[in-house]
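ok so heres the complex, three chains, lmk if somethin looks off
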Amino acid sequence: MLKSVNRKVALFLAAVAILFIFLSFQLPSYPYTEVDADIVPKGLGFLLLICSILLFFNNQEETEAERKKREIPRDELLMLLAVFGIILVYIFLLELIGFVIMTILFIFFTTWFLGYKKLISNLAVSVTFSLVIYLLFSYLLQINLPAGILPI
Amino acid sequence: MKKVFVILTILTLLIVSACSSKSTGEDAGAEDKKWSPEKPIEVVAPAGPGGGWDTTARMVTQVFEEENLIDKRMPVVNKAGGGGAVGWAYIAGQKSSNHHLFVSSPPLILVPLNGQSQYSHEDFTPIANMIADYGAFAVKADSKWNTLTDLFEDMKTDPTKISVIGTSSPGSMDHMQFIKIAQAAGVDVKKVKYLSDPDGGGMTALLNGSVEVYSTGVAETVEQVRAGKIKVLGITAEERLEGEVLSDFPTTVEQGIDETFINWRGFFGPADMDPAAVEYYTAKFQELNDSGAWDEMRKKYGWNEMFITGDDYKDFLNKEREEMQVLLDELGLAK
Amino acid sequence: MEAFQGLMSGFQIAFSLSGIIFIFIGVFVGTFIGMMPGLGPISAIAIMIPVTYNMDPALALVMMAGVYYGAIFGGSTSSILLNAPGVAGTVATSFDGYPMAQQGKAGKALAIAAISSFVGGTISVVLLMMFSPLLASVAISFGPAEYFALMLLGLTAISSLSEGSTIKAFISAILGFMVVTIGIDSQTGTARFTFGNANLLEGIDFLVIALGLFALAEVCMLIFNRKDTSVSDNKNLGSMKLSKNDIKEMAGPMGRQSFLGFIIGVLPGAGATIASFIAYITEKKIAKNPEEFGKGSIKGVAAPETANNAATSGAFVPLLSLGIPGSGTTAVLLGAFLVLGIQPGPLLVQDHPDIFWGIIASMYVGNLFLLILNLPLVPYISKVLRIPRPMLISLVIIFSLIGVYALSFNTFDLYLLLAFGVIGFLMRIFSFPAPPFILAFILGGMMEQALRQTMTISNGNLYIFFTKPIALSLIILSLLSILFPIIKNRIKKPVG
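and the predicted structre for the whole thing:
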């Protein structure tokens, strides 16, 4: 079982290496240089290919600690996916809706979602944090975070 | 229950803010032909903080605000990436906005020619050029060359022994300014060995003798010349510059090479900007150009005045592009 | 004698009331900026330039220099507490600082960082003061060939950054090197692996990688352990108590890395990040207990923190004595000189001895301020870890997002950050170490560039490396550092 996981990873890496080598061969050549732009990437691609082959045939036993790292309950994984989903939504809406509103919503909702149930202090933190950061950046540092639909 | 309350509050906030911003937009100046800004003007520097574009943008807005030439806020927004391409794409998305400006220089012509930006100066509204800078070609103080002609003669006989370093990548400014002058002097530009050091290691490489020539801006060379570490063989200006040390730099033209290179820097708006707004900004930049505060700023940075507006600016840019196109074609770098 | 007079006038500036006030403002802003992921000293100084426009140049520069070294000083905080390095120079600090904080010794880790930063900062200022004019020639002694050799030496450390499988460490490094090739190639202008996307032309920023592989990947682990309260319940979280043994253990790295860090900082382009990595690696190599590194070793915090602060002072050598900026931050600082009407260059020490020596003298005061400012804050800052896990997680995510967004104000970088978060997470569960990835990312780009520059200069002749004594000795040193462990193993085997 253990070996096969490492082997799967090795196969995946070999695929990455081959793709990378393929892309390196597509690079246009430049006439006025000794070492062109494609040399180093090609070298890296082949090195990765060699290393993934070595990994494939490596029979070094995985330690108990290493095995444990991979054992993640399904629920937890879904939780993680959900958080990444929320981050995606945040990024997508950041410039449309604006920093302040999105950040308040993000902190409040994610914190609640991860199991913090004190709504008042949650709300207080998310609002204060977002406003303080926004004002700090916009007025003190003159770095403009997206205002979005709020007229500040 | 509490949650519902929170959501309601936020919703109300959203609606109120959306309405208020709409109403201000529609009332103001619908009939008035004279245009003036209704909200803060976003000035985009298509690079990160600290570089030439960013500095110009921050200094221009600072003088505009301090001298009360424009009474709206002018926040500088950095849109870095792709040698300017990311910033230009952003402005291209603000079509016909009257509240966006951006600063640019020769890369606006070179980057699209290199095939790295789909937008060029024709996709924007040129408003005013403010500054000119010139290129300088420096060698070590103890080098055997004393004029550009000496250098180019040696380049003609054995180009493999001379390396030129600059900050920008091949096909961009430091490279092209050297190529432009070298070609006019009769050097086979295909044999010029050019290295790029984007982290600004050019001066170091020149001083420790790794390379022979450093192609850069005039300002970068002054102090090293004053200290006797390097000498400037030529600058790409038509006439000698004013100032201590600066006035000692020979121009390309006086060395019999009839070619110049201007590092111009000016302001542009998005495509289809309202002509009334263009008129407004042109007048404001004119005022800025004439102000004492801006003159002081120019002196501090060693920038030269180069004020062009309107159709003259467009013609200038078109001519610059034609010249660069020819050179890049020759090198086989144009895309 | 002249130098002495100059130094005296420098101290007069540094110890005048206004001098002290502006140094304080500088280091205060710097620490704060350093603690916030994504706010680097570059943007802070760029933003300060217009503000200082009409100020006395000496005071303005003393203040901006304070922002610079203050940011490196404060940068360790988020590395240690959140595994979110805000400044590139503090990535190596997180290797041991974060594990230490997770063991409930956050206060101790922060205190070690502050003390070693102070020691590194102060010793290096002494060196700066004594040797600055002498070292000017060292600063420019490195050409492309020498840089290539230096980067090579740095890369040989990959194997020592691995725990467990060496192959996995190498794969990790190759991947890091691959990522840095994305973008416009500096030597040819060819766009590599950008798939026509303008956002990728300038390559992927270091911070995207660091916050993705370290901060976001750690967030994933925190999500799994979100109910774990062992850290936040720890009563000694903010305790700064250091035993005599702890101090003894710190002394060696602090002494050595002050010098090494300073020398590396003197070289333009190398800087605090490389200094901190090399410090970490050398200390691990010479340590009697290298297996403790990566698990909360005191030396593992002290070494990089000493070195990055020492390197920051070192970076002032080329700037002040030659007018050559060695890094992005010193380039912006150079711009600040210009605005204030001071021409930085080889003649600065003659034309403006007050400014030259004023900045150096101010760094003594500044480092002292930083220590006084930071140490008493440690117990309070450590309490960040008392924040309930769910909230801490969302705040770390937002911090990372702001940090990356402030780089280019482009949401594309945020998607990239998320992608590297996923990569970092996968690397963790399949036991690929992240440090080799980031090391190769930092060194690889510079190494490739230096190699190709060298080849252009020599018209493709490798013989050039044999004509440069510094480059040659560095290459030999890197070969030795690869071969040495192998030979050591061979010799050991028959005996054991």
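quick notes: The mean pLDDT of chain C is 89. thats all i got rn
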